[in-house]
Amino acid sequence: MNEKVFKAYNEQIQAEFYSAYMYLAMSMDMEAKNFKGMAHWLYVQYEEEREHALKLLKFMQERGAKPALLPVEAPAADYGTPLELFKKVLAHEKYVTSRIHAMYEVVLAEKDYAAQVELQWFITEQVEEEANASDIVAKLEMAGDHMGGLMIIDGQLGARK
Ligand code: FEO
Any idea what DSSP says for residue 77? Predict the structure, then answer.
């Protein structure tokens, strides 16, 4: 693994662990605000982000590199209303997409063909991540301040596997 690719992978592992940490904080915030279904959805998201980090980490190991674990910043504790929170989720996933695309540019320039194939999984995954967040934001916008609507959405998100 060349130096630029190594650096990009390490930094993305850090970003995925930060995402995990942020979703865990979001889950705790929704739990405290009694939106248990949203808290569950966010907890599952936390687990997915951890898996993303580990997938990158294992790929580095398979390529004979030893990943360096970088510091992970503490996330915020309060994310406001469910709509405010999920708008932050959407903005965050768009940011992650831009990072993955930048990383893809690096592996293209460095002619790392194996990394190109591996990162395609992440490019596809980001399309789904943004679509899911955008769908939830749209539903929450429709519900507005109507508690009945919010409770229905909470129940739907609570069913996430
Ligand atoms: Fe690891 Fe939400 O992208």
Answer: S
